[in-house]
Amino acid sequence: MTSTRTAQAGHGLKAAALAAGLIAAGAGTAYAYWSSAGTGSGSAAAGTMQAISVDALVAGDGPGATLVPGGTADVVLRLTNPNPYAVQVYRVSPSGPATADPAHSGCTTTGVTFTGAAAPLAPATFVGANSSTLLTLPGSAAMDTTSLAACQGATFHLPVTVEVRK
Question: Are 64 and 119 in contact (CB under 8 A)?
Answer without folding.
Answer: no
